[in-house]
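Encode chain A's predicted structure.
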Amino acid sequence: MKKPRSAALPVVLCFVLFLGTGLGLHLLLPTKEYSENENRYLASAPAFRLRTLFSGDFTADFEDYVTDQFPFRDSWLDLKSRAERAFGKTENNGVFFCREDTLISRFPQPKEDAVAGAVRAVNALAGNTGLPVILALVPSAAEIWADRLPAHADTADQSALIQSIYGSVETETADICAALREHAGEPVYYRTDHHWTTLGAYYGYCAAAEALGLAPQPKERFSPETVSDSFYGTVYSSSGVRWVKPDSMEIWAPAEGVVLTRYDSPEGTVSPVYDRGKLETKDKYSMFLGGNVSRIVIETGNGGGKLLVLRDSYADCMLPFLFAHYSEIHVLDLRYFRSSVSDYAAEQGFDSVLVLYSLSDFLTDTSVSLLAS
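Encoded structure for chain A:
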């Protein structure tokens, strides 16, 4: 009697064929060093050594290498995220899949000692400089676009956090959260990035200007220019999602006659306010002021006093709105600036200090403690 053919055999053959095809393509295709979609460097083939083999390091490194270099990796990741979404998953890698084609990062509840440390640093800055200090904290899209989040999304109450911090600092404050909430129905954040858009930065500028004692310029004074319609930001990179449409980017404030010097080196380099060459790279947002650097000095050619800005990257697209109000603006990034902030303020003779940070960086970036230096 003829034995029935095993039903498992075709499945096994397909699996072997899949593995064989994957191995063949892996050997034929060139190794990729960098993933534009994930915004990170990919693992390369590890060197074989008996010591690392027996310790298990070689096996772990080789697994990372195979995972990162798997043929058509981006397509598989896209298929995976689409399948998970179809089965009701609403989050991946701390990023929520939200309404209106939006990706929003979770904002976790911060530790109490982080909040207290940041408050102490701001108060020390005000005491050490003797200057008017304005603290301006920017909430993330998880707060302003909470209505886009999936049901039961676990994220902290940023408005309450900001109000608690503002009630503890011995400085003036700018209520950027209220300004953004008033315009929550507008595109005040990118859908694929953690930053606010230039429109959102304009509303933030209005709140900061009022806290600085300035009359903000009306929106009608500006002529927005779209400089990119293919921007995919950091949230897109970490989400694993590939179905979301790209963002567009705009320039609002003119920069004619403005001299911007970036101090990548002691002598400094004169650079454009809007570095359009960055629009050809993955990090398109670094077009604003050229991206991160320890110190920037901006000579506007306008009247007004001198302003010191202590910042994270949210400041970059907002600062051009302040050009009309000051003759000189100095910008320090404390992740790279290692001199005393109070000494620098005394040497330069500033009129005011603006501490402009996203709430997330203000509470998690350890360099914030250097405000007290």
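The first helix runs from residue 8 to 28.
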